[in-house]
Design a protein that fits this description.
Strand order of the largest sheet: 3-2-4-5
Largest sheet: 4 strands, parallel
Shape: elongated
Number of helices: 20
Strand content: under 5%
Number of domains: 2
Structural class: mainly alpha
Order of helices and strands: HHEHEHEHEHHEEHHHHHHHHHHHHH
CATH architecture of the largest domain: Orthogonal Bundle
Helix content: 55-70%
CATH class of the largest domain: Mainly Alpha
């Protein structure tokens, strides 16, 4: 049992790091603030109901925030039996509230209590109502009571983290295959842009734009992924047939893909796509965004392939020792081609999801994505030397990168400082990889043996 636990901790140490990061940001983003939405309604409704049971009128004032709409909906539903005693001032501005107070005073129709949400709690007119309208001096103001909570652990923020990581994590699957075989793919960020532009332009130019149906949108999706897979195939062919370095080849295809995206879109964003296209990424059939569901399904498939199929073993064999793999009968060229085609196709999937989520295709999408994707893969435990790595480790690495970026945003850390942190994270991951493979220890021992 202890041996299995130790093995799990070694194999999936990134999961423990991810949990540690979540704990850190949960504590670091603790804040004392008023609840909103359903939480505010749950807290305040008993107090409101106590006034209504005495047949006293209530004035409810809310702003335009989405949480305010939830608060109003829940209040109306639970206090429906007292509807005649409640007056709602929904989506109000300070000017609207002033006019309402003037009318109340003029008609001598004072409420027993004024209820406000967090979005209006700071209004001077509410806080100092008695100074400006003497008749309201003794009318109490009921606001949500402040409570300490973590901004990071809010359900909306956790869903945001999952959504932010989905595209990077999907692309990182292909990058993991490439790096395990001993290669690198720098073109994935540009392929995201090319995919988004291709999907949007096919839908706009061939299927009627905003009037396109499901078939037209599917054609755009297939075309975008196919184009990226072809470029991945081009990279793989140059590497396997001509023995060119992966770094140089994918650096070239990165430039080609970005240039093609600029040419196709004429340097502009393509917006003429149906509103229904956004459902592909942000639709929530089970309460979870589709892009997150797609990410999880792809990881399950990739994990099974790498851990339980011959093809998966071939990837590791090629990365560990290419010549030995060839002599053992492994089709090295085919394995490398599959890796780069998969990397291109999955970057295409990421681009389609990006276009769906942002409702447009732009040649500016995907800038620096290759940095985040490679960081996720390396942080997840895949060795840059090839032959070592786990798909689930990459998933944990991608989630860790998303958690770090989200946590730094919540802590109001400047973007340039975030860039420094990401760079240091890459160096740390590479240092750890070198430490695991014994390079650093050997170097230190070598220093000790010098005369």
């Amino acid at each position: 049992m202890i041996r299995k636990l130790k093995s799990f901790c070694v194999d999936y140490s990134m999961l423990l790091v991810l949990l540690g990061l979540c704990l850190f940001f949960a504590v670091a983003t603790l804040d004392t603030q008023m609840p909103t939405g359903a939480a505010a309604a749950d807290q305040m409704l008993p107090d409101i109901d106590s006034y209504l049971e005495e047949k006293k009128s209530v004035l409810v004032v809310t702003g335009n925030a989405a949480d305010d709409q939830a608060f109003v909906a829940i209040t109306k539903e639970r206090l429906a039996r007292h509807a005649s005693l409640i007056k709602f001032l929904i989506g109000a501005s300070p000017q609207d509230l002033r006019r309402e107070f003037e009318q109340i005073v003029q008609n001598d129709d004072l409420p027993a209590v004024i209820v406000g949400t967090r979005s209006v709690s700071h209004w001077s007119l509410l806080q100092h109502r008695g100074e400006k309208f003497r008749a309201l001096r003794d009318v109490p103001l009921l606001l949500p009571r402040k409570a300490t909570s973590s901004n990071f652990l809010k359900p909306a923020n956790l869903k945001n983290v999952a959504g932010q990581s989905a595209v990077f994590a999907i692309i990182a699957i292909g990058m993991t295959l490439v790096i395990i075989t001993g290669g690198i793919d720098l073109s994935v960020g540009s392929l995201v842009a090319l995919s988004a532009v291709t999907a949007a332009m096919v839908i706009r130019d061939l299927f009627g734009g905003v009037d396109a149906g499901g078939g037209g949108m599917m054609a755009g999706i297939v075309a975008a992924i196919a184009v990226c897979a072809v470029i991945g195939c081009l990279s793989g062919a140059m590497i396997t047939l001509f023995g060119m370095p992966p770094f140089i080849v994918t650096l070239a295809t990165m430039s080609i893909a970005r240039g093609l995206a600029q040419i196709l879109a004429d340097g502009q964003s393509v917006y003429q796509i149906p509103g229904a296209f956004s459902y592909l990424a942000v639709g929530k059939p089970f309460g979870i965004p589709n892009e997150v569901i797609a990410m999880l399904l792809l990881y399950v498939f990739a994990h099974i392939m790498m851990a339980h199929t011959t093809l998966g073993r071939w990837f590791y064999a090629v990365g560990s020792n290419r010549e030995a793999a060839r002599l053992s009968g492994v089709p090295v060229g085919l394995v490398l081609m599959v890796a780069y085609i998969a990397s291109g196709a999955l970057a295409g999937v990421g681009g389609v999801l990006e276009a769906s989520r942002l409702q447009s295709g732009s040649p500016l999408y995907g800038v620096m994505y290759e940095l985040y994707v490679i960081t996720a893969v390396v942080v997840g435990g895949t060795s840059l030397a090839g032959g070592e790595g786990k798909i689930l480790g990459t998933l944990f690495g991608a989630l860790a990168i998303a958690v770090i970026r989200n946590g730094m945003n919540l802590m109001n850390i400047e973007s340039y400082t975030q860039g420094v942190v990401m760079g240091l994270l890459i160096l740390l991951a590479v240092f750890t990889d070198s430490l695991k493979r014994g390079h650093i220890v050997a170097w230190i021992k070598g220093l000790g043996t010098r005369p």
